[in-house]
What we know:
Blueprint: E1 2-3, H1 6-12, E2 18-23, H2 26-32, E3 47-48, E4 50-51, H3 57-65, H4 70-73, E5 78-83, E6 86-89, E7 95-97, E8 103-108, H5 110-129, H6 137-158
Parallel strand pairs: 1-8
Antiparallel strand pairs: 2-4, 2-5, 3-7, 5-8, 6-7
Amino acid sequence: MIINKLSQISKLAQDKNLFIRWSRGLKLDKKQGHSIDHSNGQAHAGLSAQNVRVDDMQLLARMLQEYQFLCRKDSKISCWIFAGVRNGTDTDGAPTIDADTITEIGKVSDELIAKCSSFADAYHSMVTKYAYNAHRPETLSRNAEIKSALEKTWEAVNG
């Protein structure tokens, strides 16, 4: 299944504890069985992943695109949604999942990842550039532009 909307993930996560993982594919992940800590080379207890958070859809949008930089290393890497049983925590504090228990739910479309990236960029701009003393004329228009950009990108992701 190709996942094109956040709402699809939200519906799927109502019945299951789902995870996000950027990889070459879950069949390959099952075969490998674990992730490697890139700073020290040690194997984790299972596959590193992120919990799907449907209680905060904007956070989910930012999480989906967080590891897309891995595609620069390997163009065959994609974002996957899957179910599985947690068996530990990796060195970054993320859950690790027992590779023998993973079940593929779907691949997140490149289009949705691109929309999530645009939203994450706008969100970052809001967080870092938004001025709280909005009564000043010089910040009023800039704040309005930042807020408008965030709303537009959110509509694109959530639409």
